[in-house]
Amino acid sequence: MIRTSLPLKKSLKPKRCRSCGANFNPISSMSKACSVPCAMALNDAAKAKSAARAAKDERKSLAERKAKLKTRREWIAEAQAAVNKVARLRDLLAGHGCISCGARPQQKFGGTFDAGHYRSVGSAPHMRYYLPAIRGQCVRCNRDLGGSAVNFRKGLVERIGINRVEEIESMQWTAKWSVEYLERLKKVMNKKARRLEKRIEAKSEVNQLEAVE
Ligand SMILES: [Zn+2]
Ligand SMILES: [Zn+2]
């Protein structure tokens, strides 16, 4: 049998336009829109979607960076607590009272004896962990009297001399604490604090024995 006609190109089934929803006869199997304006609208929608996704990724990475920053801030605070503890215990062991007014802390030093920075952390952040400039200070001088700086200086001069105090006053550098450094600092300081606590305990036992005799 001889064919009398060429087979017709198989026509494609009508589709629903993804933009306007109308039925249309697609030119190719790839067609998604019924017309040029609908194709453009679809294109715009796709672009907006990918822009939104990029913005979301950006926000996510910002949040991750923030989380890292927060961790570092926490490390700074934890290392500070350990350094402050060492400063307080060092002064207690030496029998010192408040650097500014000389008041003796009560038996429990946690709440009544602060660690005061001679140069405030706000204005001299590089001195944050510098133990010679951190001294046991009563709550009144440290908190109520805003650090009692003039008397702090007097007390510090008595303890370490005017030359060292002036040296501390002129110390200038830019501090960049890495998380690794802060972790190590906290660990070392806590160890030091435990040793100081033991020595304070031993000393008070000796004092008690002497009082009995
Ligand atoms: Zn359409
Ligand atoms: Zn005081």
List the SSEs and their pairings:
Layout (H helix, E strand, L loop, with lengths): L14 E2 L6 E2 L11 H58 L15 H4 E5 L16 E5 H6 L4 H12 L1 H9 L8 H34 L1
Antiparallel strand pairs: 1-2, 3-4
Helix pairs in contact: 1-6, 4-5
One zinc ion (ZN) binds next to loops.
- The topology string of helices and strands comes to EEHHEEHHHH
Distance linking N and C termini:
133 Å
Based on secondary structure, the structural category is mainly alpha
Kindly state the percentage of residues in helix.
Answer: 55-70%
Structure description:
The chain has one domain (57-212). The chain has helices spanning 36-93, 109-112, 139-144, 149-160, 162-170, 179-212; strands spanning 15-16, 23-24, 113-117, 134-138. It has 213 residues and is mostly helical. The longest helix is centred in the first third of the chain and has 58 residues, at 36-93. The mean pLDDT is 89. It contains six helices and four strands, in the order E-E-H-H-E-E-H-H-H-H. The strands form two sheets. A two-stranded antiparallel sheet has the order 1-2. Residues 17, 19-20, 22, 33-35, 38 line the site of one zinc ion.
Quick overview of this protein structure:
The protein is mostly helical and 213 residues long.
What attributes does this structure have?
213 residues, mainly alpha, two-stranded antiparallel sheet, 6 helices, 4 strands, binds zinc ion
